[in-house]
Amino acid sequence: MMNILNEELNHMKYLKIDNNKGYFLQKTESEEVWIEIDKISKEDLMHLLIKATEEEFSMDDYSEELLSHKAHQIVYKNIHDKFSYLVENKNIFRDECDNQFVEALAKYQEEE
Prior knowledge:
This protein is of the alpha+beta class. The protein has helices at 2-10, 42-54, 70-88, 90-111, and strands spanning 11-18, 21-27, 32-36, 56-59.
């Protein structure tokens, strides 16, 4: 049972479709609340971006049939597409950042 709980905690869902609307998970220290996707702020996006790069990040696949609210379709699809690309390429981005850091560090050490 403990392994299942750990696995669920490590693989958190941050975007979902429910009752024809899209939602994102807003987490604070004291609670987790699902907010309609059209209410998302840039701070919320930054929080999701951090979670997507640091954790196992899951989300419901975009489905026009399940998401009939037009505004939610537009916002959810755009966010889903961008985060899907980020999650799929997370290791590549991380390796590129690490390589740039190593190169900068090597250059700095040569100058000393």
